[in-house]
Amino acid sequence: MNKPIRTRFAPSPTGHLHIGGARTALYNYLFTRQTGGKFILRLEDTDRKRFVPEAEQEIIDGLHWLGIQWDEGPDIGGPGGPYRQSERKAIYLQFAHELISLGHAYFCFCSPERLEQVRQDHMQKKLQPHYDGTCRMLGQAEAQRRVDAGEAHVIRFKMPDDGAIRVTDRLRGEITVENKNLDDSIIVKSDGLALYHLAAMVDDHLMQISHVIRGSEWLPSLPLHSHIIRAFGWEEPEWIHLSVFLKPSGKGKMSKRESLDLMKDGYSIFLKDLKPLGYLPESTINWIALMGWSYDDKTEIFSMQELIEKFSLDHLNPAPAAINFTKFDYYNGVHIRSLGQEDLCDRLSPFFDQAGLVVNSNKLYEVTAVVQERITTLDDAAEVAGFFFRDSVEPDPANLVGKKMTVQESLQVARDVLQILETLPDTKLTTTEPPMRTYLESGPWGAGQVFGILRVAVTGQTVSPPLFESMEIIGREVVLMRVKRAIQLLEAYAIGN
Q1: pLDDT at 2
Q2: Which residues are known to be catalytic?
Q3: Whether this model's pTM surpasses 0.90
């Protein structure tokens, strides 16, 4: 195929964009950027019953969040526009009538009631329901007379009676289907709107799409699509039907109910949810790219630029891919650690705001350095490091009791620590750590016990970023106040125990 590389992502704005659609967009984008081709965004919005008005903007925003840009599309225009199928009704009708004149389509006047009766008859005979061809036998003049008289009708594609169609998919090889097993599908509805089968093929031709990279759910429609293209005498694009996504267990496709359950665990298959859950666009494209494609058997971390350089259609895998959120978390952590401190600081700020914490930008910059190695998602940061921005912390007194220590022993350690800290001019790491180490060497308690008590006192948490670095950021006045409060809590706890 010598024509220029042109691909398209053509979602239906009927709901939320999920990671399967995002992966389809990504593969199309990577392929065209690698080859110097053109990538087109087209909205296939002919299903007006399921159309969701806000879905179009969600698709655009989601793709932009991932860093995917298109060369032509509904928001930026282009030579092949319009890029919404609902705005191309006249174009599709023109081509539908051309198919009729060529003898490859016909008007059908059967009522919904008659079609339902035909369906029931076929089911009773244990046959695959299909149209029985009643209107197929009408002469064109008679059919046109009924159309002109205003009789309700659809347009059906006239499937050949005999023979077979052979179509090649790049991932799956040659696919052969007997024509007798294919139905005379409706290509234009009674309201004059074309169905996907006609509209997408016309658009792909007019927009000069060279490669159709799409989900495997379209494989059953491939013979019909190929028939329509060949009926016009057009050159077929190269077909690539991607692997299907399976739910994390590997058993079956993800359902809507299971998607809701995922949210309870902090996961989602919908692109709109991933940013507020604390996932990076960099890790998202890394994750979805590797569900159906691989570069080799060892490289796992990719930037967008590296994906553009290394992506290959030849390395796509048609086998179903289970959604692995553990991998997603891993990739997200790796990409968080690769960010510059200022960049990460900017990305973390909204999550502290959402947690109701008033952050100081200078302090947040310092905090970023100590949490960067310790968070998996951006929304972890407020939980891990929220204590930096609170006026006070109120730890559970039980957590202030050191391991294998009594309340009184822990209380004495807290008093000793306070005495040491009060003698110091500040809480810089180089100021606080040496005397605390000396205290450990002179007493019976281990670092885990002493520093554990101090950690809970200062942060309110049993797990935190490095203790002495945290104390330096918190500052002397607040550290002393929190240790004093911990002593009060232990004293009260001792009375009750």
Answers
A1: 65
A2: 256
A3: yes
Q: Mean pLDDT in each 10-residue stretch from start to end of the chain (497 residues)?
A: 86 92 97 97 88 92 97 96 95 97 96 94 90 93 96 97 96 96 96 94 98 95 98 97 86 69 85 96 98 93 97 94 94 98 96 94 95 96 96 95 95 97 97 96 94 98 96 97 97 86
Strands (E), 217-264: 238-242, 245-246
Gap between the terminal Cα atoms of the chain: 82
Domains defined along the chain, listed by start = 88-242 (3.40.50.620), 341-389 (1.10.8), 397-496 (1.10.10.350)
Q: Are 135 and 156 in contact (CB under 8 A)?
A: yes
Radius of gyration of the chain (CA): 32
Q: Which residue, 60, 34, 47, is CA-closest to 310?
A: 34
Residues 48 and 8: beta-carbon distance below 8 Å: no
Nearest to 483 by CA among 392, 357, 386: 392
In which region does residue 458 sit, left (phi positive, over 0), alpha (psi from -120 to 50) or beta (all else)?
Answer: alpha
Three-state SS at 155 = strand
Question: Tokens representing 143?
Answer: 């059919």
Please give the pLDDT value at position 395: 96
Tell me whether strands 186-188 and 173-178 are parallel, antiparallel or unpaired: unpaired
Question: What is the DSSP code (8-state) at residue 299?
Answer: -
List C-alpha distances in Å: 149 to 152, 300, 441. Answer: 9, 64, 102
